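Lab notebook, bench 4. The sequencing result for the construct came back, and we need a structural model before the next group meeting so we can plan mutations. Quick request posted to the team channel:

Model the 3D structure of this chain.
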Amino acid sequence: MAGGRLGWYARRLRAMGPAEVAWRMRRLAVETAAPRLDPLRERLPGARALPDDADAASWERALAAFRTATDRPVLLDRGAAGTIAATAPAATADLLAAAERVAAHRFAFFAHPEVTLADPVDWHHDPLAGHDWPRVPARRLDHRTAPADVKWIWELNRLQHLPWLAEAWLLTGRDELAAEAFAQLDSWLDANPVGVGIAWRGAFEAGVRMISVLVALQGLRTSPLLTAERLRRVVVVADASARACWRERSLHSSANNHLVGELAGLAATCLLLPELPDAERRLGRALDALVREAGRQVLPDGAGAEQAVGYQVFTAELVLVVAVLLRASGRPVPAPLTDALTRSGTYLAGLVGRGDPEPRYGDDDEGFALRLGPEPVRTIADHLDVLAAYGAAPADLPPGAGLTARWVAAATTGTPGPTGLLPDAARDAGSFHAPHGGLVVLRPAAGERVTVDTGPLGYLAIAAHGHADALAVTWSVGGRDRVVDPGTGSYYGHPAWRRVHRGTAVHATVTVDGEDQSVMAGAFLWSRRAEVTEVDVDLDRGVVTAEHDGYTRLEDPVVHRRHVEAPPDAGGGFLVVDVLRAAGEHTAGVAWPLAPGLQAQVVAGGHLVTDGAEALFALAAAATAPLRHTVVVGDPATHRGWVSRRLEGREPAPLLGTTATGTGPLVVATHLHPATGAGDLRPPVVEVDGDVARVVWWAGGRRRVTDVAITPRPPGIAR
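Done. Here's the predicted structure in token form:
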């Protein structure tokens, strides 16, 4: 396993600067030489000895303070439970059903089937892979080379189901639910000594886990089953986790959502356990760092720096957990945290509007900062409800608001601070441009959304969660997807899925000579990335022109320029003009991944798409070279023709292709428009006139001419 770790460092070396190389070598030396995550070795206020040796009276006093929630925020409370049960009976019933499942040791993560685990739970066993993770110091484990998907065992060991059991006990008063929560927590503590096993591989896991453990324990604080000894054991592990979150925090090229999770875990632990040694100083240190990261990871336009919408929601909720606990304790929330939440929420609300499908660009591991509802994934709509609930009274919540939003509203009601975090008008936003995140949203007609990706590959040197999808588009009409992002596919379970779903060929953009725009160097690492330049964005005209340099690495360098035009008077649909600026001959492959459930066929001039019963739209194409049209659905060999709506799961869906081979400048024009049959297809006409690619097309009952400049700078001109 050591060789595997050294190999991983070697692959990452080229993405690191000198400071990071030195830092990682120091950390590797420490991992090799000494144990990590030592147990608590400081005094609790009032204790006469080390906490793990303290006298019984000291721990009884600590238990009394914990039961009465002295000097700490309250999130799960019996009084709030009564209000929630009365106002959200359907959501409450779903939560109780989820609690019953985990009480019976039935767990389901990602797209994997539900499994029933032994009693007591074996926290090191993966029943899907039949793999037992070694009970050795965590520093000796290499999850990248193990014969199992580490995401599954990490998800189990985050203990994010414990709050369900605590909520269910508060909602019903059934003591067997509290007993099960304590039994599982006891068994986890027995099986996972500090620093031992896969659950301790990474401070991020420790931080996210402690948020759930401490919130659940607080919900159970009035149960007679919570003893001073149980509290002592949790405090020891909580302190070790908090130390890991700071000492082993993710820095340099790894300082993405992991760093936010570590800082949030540290802050939450200090807020919920003020007995910890030097808790105020540690809290202040965590908040200062979190303020910096919120400014970095939520860009000025509200987009997420990681270029992955799932991680933007996850990161925002980690920040939100800290903000909620601060507000619930009567403390001020640092303005930069509130500002970051507002920016992110407004961006996301504008992206999904009211009823638009969920976007899926970049990676998504379905992470939760805190699971207080039974929903399997956190949708953007769910997230916006939680964000709006921050500072709102429970009575202000919409009828469909989930349990997380209701607990947050109950905990923060009546505390000082801003309440109107998310302008409701943002949900009705029209077209918008996020120049820092690199996304343009065009809404040419009611219920129609076209997105154009003009952003960078990802965040920091390794761009771990970005996909090679520069200039990709998506299209939805009436709340239903048409052209989609293919989703994440897999992390560790299916390496071939991982490679394909991150690659260019399955996104709605262009491959050149069969190559990806950016070069992969590992499952979460890129060695060369495409850089995008926006040339023209005109929201009123519905025009976006941009280009990227990803193919300038070829022996005969190629620049891909894409012009998207979705005018409001076109009667639905849009035009895409792709220009390859090059000297020699190249092959352009234009891909169009469609939503599952749609069907497509090749017809004269392009593709016709149906819903299985009637025609919906056509893709009419023309080029400066002969075209070949293809349809691939669910190919098990190439892994193309699939859409992933859950991690580790996929569904067959049409992947349409239009391919042209010719000498540069090579131009391909595609008009996506409503159609009732093959006879409605009317391919555009394409020609090159000097430094301009001219496209004649028909939409909205009239002939249109679009000129796209081939030279580097001037924008496309439509008339």
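The first helix runs from residue 2 to 12.
Will bring this to the meeting.
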